[in-house]
Amino acid sequence: VQLVESGGGLAQPGGSLRLSCAASGFTFSSADMSWARQGPGKEREFVAAISWSGREEYYADSVKGRFTISRDNAASNTVYLQMNNLTFEDTAVYYCHLLGTLYWGQGTQVTVSS
Hints:
Layout: E1 2-6, E2 9-11, E3 17-24, E4 33-38, E5 45-50, E6 57-59, E7 67-72, E8 78-83, E9 92-98, E10 108-112
Parallel strand pairs: 2-10
Antiparallel strand pairs: 1-3, 3-8, 4-5, 4-9, 5-6, 7-8, 9-10
């Protein structure tokens, strides 16, 4: 199993970033996926999840209405996290997770700074 995140970087408050997680080594189209994050000095926390079909999405209250999780089962075996209206509190390392397993990506850093 491999989960490779990309798309992190520096953004201004109110800005946007789109994270990607390229998945391989398992049947992606049958797998529920999620994003989590770990901010400086904080524990890792749930951000968003998406069912294998893409029909169901779940969000932490802190990102609801600003972040959108999606996936591409057909072409790229990738799960995305569109992050809009970023705030300082969104600064964290963001991780992709194969739900129900111990498989995590290596993480991608998101820094929100003016």
